[in-house]
Every structure is written in C-alpha cells, then in structure tokens.
Amino acid sequence: MPINIPNSLPAKQTLEQENVYLITDDRAAHQDIRPLRIMILNLMPKKIETETQLLRLLGNTPLQIDIDLLQTATHVSKNTSSEHLLKFYRTFDEVKEERYDGLIITGAPVEMMPFEEVDYWGELEQIFEWSKTHVYSTFHICWGAQAGVYYHYGIEKRILPQKMFGIFPHSLTNANHLLMRGFDEIFQVPHSRHTGIDEKALYGHPELEVLSYSDISGINIAVSHDCRRVFVFGHFEYDRRTLANEYFRDVEKGMDNVPFPYHYFPNDDPAMRPPFIWRGHANLLYKNWLNIVYQQTPYDLNDLK
C-alpha cells in the first residue's frame, strides 16, 4: 500500500522514479480504509532532502500512510524556501488538537548548543509534552533522540572528543525485540554527530531498554518498554552520498581538522563510490516500527491515552 503525500511535493518525482508506491490526496479520499497518520517534525536545514529520505523508507511497507509535515514556528529556515514551507508544512498551533499514530522527530545541526539555548526549544518542549497524549509512538533521530531522552528522562548529552563520522558496525542487545525483528547480528549504521549521551544513565533508567550497541559509536537504539518512544542515535535514513556531501562541503569550506568518514569510501579513497551497506536494515527498522504502531494503536485515535 502507498504513502499519501501532496501531489506537488518535490520528493514525489524522485520517489516515483524509484518505484516507491505513492497515492495522491484525491485518490486516497475515495478509499474506505483507516490509514496510519504519521507526522514528521523536520528540523534539518535541507528539508526537501530529509523529506525524501524518510518518505522513501515509510513508503516501503504494506500499510497506507497519510503524511503531515511539521515545522517549528519559532525558527526561520535559511536553506528551504518560504514558499515550500508555506505550501507543505504546518505548525504546532495548527495540529495540536489532532492525534497521530506516529511522530518522527529528525536530527538538527544544533548539538553543540545547550538544549535550552536552541531558539525553538520551548516549542519543542510543547511538542514533546503533546506527544504523550496525542501520538501513539514517537521515533526520535540523532539530536532529536538526544533531546527526547533529555526531556522525558533527564539524561544529559556529552560532547565527544572528536566527531563521530562514518559507517559503524552495531550488534543486537535484544534480538527478540519486535523492533529488531529480522536484523542481522551485525549491521552498519551511518553516524554524523559531535555529541553522545550519558550511556550509564540510559542503561540505568528503569523505563528504557537498549536494543543495539557499537563498541565504537556507542548506544544506537533505545526504546521505552511500551515502544511509545523510540530513540535512534544514528542516521539509518541517510542516502548513499549524504556523508560524502557533508565531508566535501567541509573540506571546500577550508575547515580545520575535517574528520575522514570511517569505513565509508572503498580503500579510504574519496574518489570512489561509497557502497550502500545500511539500506536493507534502514527499511527493516522503519517497517518494524510501523508494524508495531499498526498493531498497537487504537483504531479510533480519540481513544489514545
């Protein structure tokens, strides 16, 4: 079954070329089913790129999904046109009375700042609190995951001695969890971050469980016991060249000590094409999450508690 997105969303053409199954608003209105309602709070600067990455993964399931895009009203995006935001994005004031099966909160390039100094932190706190009663399951990514465990559980982030940048091997700590169903014992995940979390505090929190870990990059996936909150500290959604584009961008800027991406370019040669070795597990993770949401969300979202 397809994902339902606006007909003129820029991601539509790319996804159609990749044979991702889409449906327009007009056609969806004539189907007598109850689709999953998924909201994406997109905090990334290049919003169209992130939209496409996430929609590609959400569209690879048997479920019909209605997508809403959310932006913060308290931050002005410098990398996405105001026309795009006005046409396709809503603000929290516009959705706060609505209910959703799932919410995805992306990463953001603000990790070196204290949470309270981020200009939209107050608004994000409102969204976190709203999600407790208006969303069945929230999927937090990278900085969004760090912000989520801080807000909900008081777990602090930590500045790393050097940027965690590249593709890192991870192993399962609970292979029987529904979110990890079908995962290989060792799998690869992209990371791009200057901060980590207080792992001792997360491991010790009675409401949280760690599902996967890397000896190099640390905790990768953690969940609340009821799966109402999922925290993913890497970037399963990244495209083949996302890390390459970031690396070359920083080199061209003349930045000092630009880290070379770990285990990414063949033979560590940046002229070579990076192999896309995390795509299968990325699709599997999102498919598993949507299946959990589908199985456990009340049919009538007004019954959410």
UniProtKB/TrEMBL annotation:
Question: Where does the record place the site Important for substrate specificity?
Answer: S192
Going by the UniProt record, its keywords in alphabetical order are: Acyltransferase, Amino-acid biosynthesis, Cytoplasm, Methionine biosynthesis, Transferase
GO molecular function annotation: homoserine O-acetyltransferase activity; homoserine O-succinyltransferase activity
The positions annotated as site (Important for acyl-CoA specificity) read E111
**What is its EC class?**
transferase
User: Could you confirm whether the keyword Membrane appears in this record?
Assistant: no
Q: Which reaction does it catalyse?
A: L-homoserine + acetyl-CoA = O-acetyl-L-homoserine + CoA
What SUPFAM superfamilies is this protein classified in?
Answer: Class I glutamine amidotransferase-like
Gene Ontology CC terms, in alphabetical order: cytoplasm
Enzyme active site: C142, H235, E237
- Cite the InterPro entries for this sequence: Class_I_gatase-like, HST_MetA, MetA_family
Q: Which HAMAP family match?
A: MetA_acyltransf (MF_00295)
What is this protein's function per UniProt? Transfers an acetyl group from acetyl-CoA to L-homoserine, forming acetyl-L-homoserine.
Q: Which family does it belong to?
A: Belongs to the MetA family.
Tell me the protein's name.
Homoserine O-acetyltransferase
